[in-house]
Amino acid sequence: MKWRRVFVALTALSMIAAACSSDGGGGSSDSASGEDVTLNFWLYKEGYGFIDQVVSAFEAANPNIHIDVTNYPETAYGVKMDTALAAGKAPDLALVGPELMHAGLLLPLDNMVKEQGIDLSTFNQGIVGTSLGPTESCSFDGKLYCLGSYTGMVALFYNKDMFDAAGVPYPAAWPPMNVDQFVADACQLTDPDNQVWGAAYGDPITFLPWETVVSEDGHTATGVVNGPASVEAHEVLAKGMRDGCAPSLNILDPWEQGTDYFARGQLAMVVTDFQSLKKIENAGINYGVTGSPTANGVEPWFNVWTDSIGAFASTEHPKEAEAFISFLATEGQKLRVQDTGDLPLDTKVAKDLDWAGGIPGREEGLEVLQNARQGVFVPNRWDTFGPIFDAYALIVNGDKSAQEALNEAAPAIQENLDKAWNDWNSQN
Amino acid sequence: MAKKGLMARKEQRAAYLFLSPWLFGLAAFWIIPIIASIALSLSEYNIITSPHFVGLENYREMLFDDRTFWVSIRVTLKFMVLSVPLYLVCGLILSLLLNLKIRGINFFRTIFFLPSVLSGVAVAVLWVALLNPDVGAVNELLRNLGMSDPPRWLDSPTWAVPSVVLVGLWGIGGGAIIYLSGLQNISAQLYEAALLDGAGPWQRFRYVTLPMLTPTLLFVLITGLIDAFQVFDLAYVLSRGGNQGIGDSLQFYLINLWNEAFQNGRYGYASALSWVLVLAAAAVILIIFRTSGRWVYYEYDPERGR
Amino acid sequence: MKTIEAPERTPAPPELEPVSNAGRYRRRRISHKVLMYGLLLGLCAFILLPVGWMLTAALKPDLEPVFTPTPEWFPTKFWEWSNFHRVLTESMPFLRYSINTTIIVVANIIGVLISCSLVGFAFARLRFRGSKVLFYILIVTMLIPWQALMVPQFLFFVKLGWYGTYLPLIVPSFTGTAFFIFLIRQYMRTIPKDLDDAARVDGLNSWQIFWRIILPLSTPVLTVCAVFTFLWNWNNLLGPLIYLDSDEKFTVAMGLANLVTVSDTPWNLTMAANLITILPCVIVYFFVQKKLIGGIASVGLKG
Fold first, then answer.
1. What interface predicted TM-score (ipTM) does this complex get?
2. Cα–Cα distances in Å, from A30 out to A35, A66, A69, C161?
3. For C10, which of B25, B26, B188 is closest by C-beta distance?
C-alpha cells in the first residue's frame, strides 16, 4: 500500500539523517605541538558575545589552534557539565565553579602564570587572591584554577543631580555608607509626586557582607544571622521599604530592572550590577559610584566575579588550553575594554588603556574595586540561606520584628548549613 | 475445540509480535538503566566522580533524618487533592464545549490549545508577573471587584500551591483533546435511541456520554494522578528555580529530588527518593485499577468476556 | 476473499436539538447558542489575555521595562516589530535550529504512531497470557520519574556510542511510549466487539483486523498522539541538552533557553522568540484538527 511505503521511506530517511549527523562534533585530532589542534570550549552567554572576538584573535595569533565554542543555557549549564563529565566527554575549556575545583577536575594554573610571567598582584584580589578555604572565585585550596577577562561587581550607583537638588552630600567612594545612612538618604531623596524612589535594593543578604550572617569559617549561622548587626540591618532596610523610600521587591527587582529605572531617573540610588554603567552612561545620567552599604561594625565587602574560565585536567591539550587562558587574561582583557568597555580583571590594564577616561563615576568605581576582598564560602549559598529571604519578607510586611523573624529563621538556616557542609565534605 | 485452541495460540503469537517493539525497548533501553538506578539508590553519587556504596543508608536517612522529605510529601499531596478532581471536571466540561458543532469551533479549539504550546519559561515568567501580589493583574482585578486583601499567591504559604494549580488550569485546553478523541466513539445510534425515549440534554450526557467516556476518564484520572506525583517543570520555574516558596510551600517531591541530585551532589539519594515515589504511586494506582472494573465500561472487554 | 463493507457515514446528531414545537424550539436554540458562544468567548479571554501580555512585551524596545506595575494586556505605545526580525536573525541561527528540531519531531511522530498503535492494539483487543502483568509493567514505567532514569540512561547511551547524535532522541520513540500506548488502549477498547467478531468469521487474522478495521477508526486518538509528540519534542530541552554537544545540532528549545540568563535577560526578545516558536505548533494543530473527528460516531454501524 502506498502509505506503508511512504512510512517506511520516511523512517529510513530519519534514521539515516540521525546516523549521518553522528560524525562526533568537535573532536580534537591527535597532535604534537605545532600540529592542528581543536579545543572544545563551553560556556553560557553572558550577554555580550565577547568571547567570540577573543577566540578569533587567539586563533589569528595561533593558526594551528582552533577553538570550538558552544553555548549552553545558563540555567541548565550545571546539568550539562555534570552529565558530560560522567560520560567522560568533558570539554577542554569551560566556565568553571567551586564544585569542579573541589572535585579535583581542573588544571591548576599556577605554573602557567609563573611561566608566562603574568603579574597577578594587580588583578582583582577578590578573585585571584589566595585564601584559606574554598571560595567562589578562582583560587581554591591555595591553587589558581581559572582566570577571566573582566570584573563584575555589585556596586551602588547614585544620581548626583538628585543629590544636589535635595541638598544631600555625596557618599564617599570608599568606605561605603552603613545601612542607617543609606536608608536615611534614600528617604530624603524619595519624591512620590514625581514617582521617584530614593533607592532600590534587594534582600539584605544579597549585598551585605557575609560576616553579617555567618561565621568566618562558614559553618555557624546561629548567633550571627540573628545577631545584633544582622538584626539592625534587616530592621533598617525593611523600614526603608515599608516607609516607601524604596520599592518592595514585588514592585521592582533591582537586579533585573533597577538599572532601567535608574536610567530613566526614577531612582536616586540603586544597588545593582556594575556592568550596567553603560546603560546609565547612555542615558546621560550624572552618576557616582560607591560600595554596597554595610552593616554597623562589619568590615565592608562587595561581591566580585569574573568569567571564570578554566581548563579540565582531562584535556588532551593542556599546553594549548593554558595558552588560551593566558591570552584571555592578558590580550583578552585589552580586547574586552576596547570592544565592550567592561571593567577588566587587571586594574593595570584599566589604567594603561585609560578605561576611566576621566569620567568621575568610573574613577570612583576603580577606587571601590581596590578594596575587593574574598567572601566567606558557603556551599549552595542561596539555597542554604533560603529561610532568610522569607524572614525578610515578613519583616517588610510588618508581620514580625527583625529579631523575631531572624530568631525563627536561624535554626532552619543552621540546619541547612550543616547539611550543606556535610554534603560538600562527603564528595570525596 | 481444537480449532479454538489453535486460534488462541495464533492470537497469542500475534499479540507478542504486536508487542515486540515495546518488549524490545524494555529490554534494550529500560532494564539496565532501571537496575543501575536501583543500585545508585544504594550509593552516594555526585555524578562527576564515581559512586560509592552505602547500602540502605539513603532510605534510613530519608525516613528518619530528613524533614524536607515529609514536607515535600505534604506539598505534593495538597497539590494532588486540589488538581486531580479540578482538572478532571474542567477538562471534561471544556471538551464538551469544544465538541459543539457550531461555527468557528476550530478557532476556539486552537485558542484553547495555545497555552500548552508555550515553553515553560515563558509561561512561568508570565504568571509570576500576573500573580505578583502587589502589582500583578490578577490582584488588580480582584481589588477592582471589591476584594480589599487579595491572596498573596506565590508569596503566601497557603496560596502557593493553589497558584500552581491555577496556572496548570490555564493550560488545560491541550488535554481536552484527549476527551475529544474519546467522544468520537460514542455511536450516533445510542443518542438516537435516547432521543426517542425523550431524553433531554442532561440525561443524554448522564446516560450515554458519561458511561461511554469512562475509559477516557480512567486514563485522565490515572495520568492526572501521575502528573500530580511528578509535578516539576511548572513548579520549578514558578518558584524561580530554587527558592521553594515561602516556608517551603512549593517544595514538591520532585523539586526536592532534583535539588538533591544536581545542587547538593547527591544523585544516589535522589534515586532513593524516586524509588520510594514509584512504590507509593504504584500502590495508589493499583487500587484504582482494581476498583475500576466497577465503573468503567469497555465495549471490548476480554476480562469480562465481552 | 470477502472484504468487509466500508461502513456508511451518517452524521452525529447536533447536541442541542430538543424535540419540541417550532417557535419555542428556535428561541431555545438561539439562546442556547448565545450562552455557548458567551461561555467560550469568556474562557478565551482567560487564555488570550496572558498571550496578549506576551505580545505587548515582545513589541517593547530594549530599555523599556517589561514588568510594569499596571499590566499591559495589549500593545498600545510600542510597536517594535523589528524585535521579531532580530530574534530570527541575530539571537540564534533560527533556521538551522528549526530544521534540526523538525527532523527530531517528525522522526518521533513516525516512531510513536507506528510503535504505539501496534502495542496499544495488542493490549486493547487481543487475548494473550500475561496481558495483565505486562500492562501493569507498562503503567509502572510511567511512574518512574525521568530525573531518576536520566543519568543511568544517559550513561547507557554513551556506552552505545550514541553521544553527540540524534539517536537517543529518536530511536526510543520507535519502541513505544507508555502514555500513548495506554491512551490508545483505552480508545481502541471503546470500539464495539461486533466488528472483530464479524471479521474473524470472515477469516481475517489479527494483522488484518488491525490494519483494515481498527486503525482507520483510530484516527482521532492517533492525531492526539501525533500532536502531543510534536509538542513534547518541540519544547524538549533536557534531551537535546545532555546528548548534543555541537551547536549545529542544537534545537529551537535550546536556542530559546540560551536567551535567558541570570542577569540581563532581554525579556522583549525572549517573549518575541517564544511567540515565533509557537506559530508552527499552532498552525499544525489548526490543520490537523479535522482528523480529530473519526471513530464510530461518524461511522454508522450497519446491523
1. 0.91
2. 8, 13, 19, 20
3. B188
pLDDT tens, residue by residue, A27-46: 344 444 567 888 999 988 76
Average pLDDT over residues A229-241: 95
Q: Cα–Cα–Cα angle for C239, A26, A310, nearest 5°? A: 90
The CA distance from A343 to the nearest CA of chain B, in Å, is: 29
Q: Which residues pair with A68 in a beta bridge?
A: A40
| pLDDT tens digit sequence for C153-189 | 999 999 999 999 999 999 999 999 999 999 999 999 9
b/e C221-234 (16+ beta carbons within 10 angstroms → b): bbbbbbbbbbbbbb
C-alpha to C-alpha distance for C282 and B116, rounded to whole angstroms: 10
Cβ within 8 Å of residue B219, ≥6 positions away: B178, C182, C183, C186
- Write out pLDDT tens, residues A122-181: 888 878 876 555 566 788 888 899 998 888 889 999 999 999 999 999 999 999 999 999
User: What is the secondary structure of A49-85 as a DSSP string?
Assistant: --HHHHHHHHHHH-TTEEEEEEE--GGGHHHHHHHHH
Running DSSP on this structure, what letter comes out for residue A43? E
Provide DSSP, B278-305.
HHHHHHHHHHHHHHHTTT---SS-GGGT
Residues whose CB falls within 8 Å of the CB of residue C194, separated by 6 or more in sequence, listed in order: C301
| pLDDT beyond 70 at C3 | no
- C275 → chain B, closest CA residue: B118
Q: Are C20 and B97 in contact, with CB atoms under 8 Å apart?
A: no
Secondary structure letter of residue B77 according to DSSP? H
What's the gap in Å between the CA of A165 and the closest CA on chain C?
26
The amino acid at residue A43 is L
Provide the pLDDT for residue A27. Answer: 39
Q: Are B125 and C57 in contact (CB under 8 A)?
A: no
Interface mutation vs chain C, best among B97, B114, B181, B186, most C CBs within 10 Å = B181
Name the CA radius of gyration of chain C, rounded.
Answer: 25
Give exposure, A334-369, as e/b (b: 16+ Cβ within 10 Å). Answer: bbbbeebbbbbbbbebbeeeebbeeeebbbbbbbbb
| C42 burial level (CB within 10 Å; 0-12, 13-18, 19+) | exposed
What is the Cα–Cα distance from B43 to B267, expressed in whole angstroms? Answer: 9
Nearest to A203 by CA among A154, A259, A148: A154
d(CA B8, CA B15): 10
Chain B residues 108-167 with a CB less than 8 Å from chain C? 108-122, 125-127, 129-130, 132, 135-137, 140
Q: Are A402 and A226 in contact (CB under 8 A)?
A: no
Strands, sheet with A309-311, edge to edge from the N-terminal-most edge strand: A65-71, A37-43, A93-95, A309-311
Q: How far is A86 from chain C (nearest CA, A)?
A: 7
Helix axes B137-144, B120-130, angle to 10 degrees: 30
Of A42-56, A190-204, A220-234, A330-344, minimum mean pLDDT range: A42-56
Overall average pLDDT of the B189-200 stretch = 87
Is residue C294 a contact partner of residue C217, using CB atoms and an 8 Å limit? yes
Looking at beta carbons, which pairs linking C55-63 to residues 24 or more positions away fall under 8 Å? C55/C271, C55/C275, C57/C267, C57/C268, C57/C271, C58/C83, C58/C84, C58/C268, C58/C269, C58/C271, C58/C272, C58/C275, C59/C83, C59/C268, C59/C272, C60/C268, C61/C268, C62/C266, C62/C268, C63/A260, C63/A263, C63/A264, C63/A279, C63/A283
**Cβ neighbourhood burial of C55 (10 Å; 0-12, 13-18, 19+):** middle
Neighbours of chain B (3+ CB pairs under 8 A): A, C
What angle in degrees, to the nearest 10, is found between the helix axes of C22-58 and B120-130? Answer: 100
Would you call C148 helix, strand, or coil by DSSP?
Answer: helix
